[in-house]
Amino acid sequence: MKKRIPAYVTVILLIAAVASCAFGAYRGEMKTVNRKAVNVCMECIGIG
C-alpha cells in the first residue's frame, strides 16, 4: 500500500523550487551553466 503525500507538502516543495530557480536567475547562474554546458559539448564533439 502506497502512502500519499499531502497536497500542502507538494505545494511547499513547488514554491521552494520556483523560488530557487528565480534566485539563481537573479544571480546570473544561467549564464554560468550555459557556458559550462557549451564547453563540455565542444570537448565531447572535439571541436574545441
- Which word captures the global form? elongated
- Rounded mean pLDDT is 89
Query: What is the gyration radius calculated from CA atoms?
Result: 18 Å
| Helix fraction by DSSP (H/I, runs of at least 4) | over 70%
Instruction: Report how far the terminal alpha carbons are from each other.
Output: 52 Å
Q: How would you describe this protein?
A:
With 48 residues, this protein is an all-alpha fold. It has helices at 7-27, 29-45. The chain is elongated and about 50 Å long.
List keywords for this structure.
single chain, 48 residues, mainly alpha, 2 helices, 0% strand, elongated
Provide a short characterization of the protein structure.
With 48 residues, this protein is an all-alpha fold. It has 2 helices and no strands.
Describe the protein's topology:
Blueprint: H1 7-27, H2 29-45
